[in-house]
Design a protein that fits this description.
The chain is 11% helix and 63% strand. A hairpin with a 2-residue loop joins strand 3 and strand 4. The protein starts with 12 loop residues before the first strand and ends with a strand. With 102 residues, it is mostly beta strands.
């Protein structure tokens, strides 16, 4: 039976195939997280100067914000040691505005 970790905190190799680590190493040594927030909104205003003369204006917004981060532990798995670890952090913010007068 193969334990979850070696005494030094690394993942053990499988006894029947020494080039393959405990499969938990692929799950526990690599983490990813992605978050996305979206906002949609519209509003309008209408002014009647006379019964036949009106001004209507409308405005809309679409906003999106995302965050992606990943981390590959450089010590606990063979994959992490071969890659010398990896880390990345990305953010994105998008706006779309529309304004109309009718």
């Amino acid at each position: 039976m193969v334990g979850k970790y070696n005494a030094d905190g690394t993942f053990p190799t499988l006894p029947f195939l020494s080039s393959l680590e405990n499969p938990l190493s692929a799950v526990e040594s690599y983490t990813r997280d992605y978050v996305y927030h979206k906002l949609l909104g519209n509003l309008y205003a209408e002014i009647a100067f006379t019964p036949d003369l009106k001004l209507k204006t409308s405005m809309g917004i679409e906003m999106g914000a995302s965050r992606y981060k990943e981390f590959l532990d450089p010590f606990s798995s063979a994959w992490g040691r071969n890659q010398q670890g990896q880390a990345s952090y990305n953010t994105s913010l998008n706006y779309k505005w529309i304004n109309e007068e009718i």
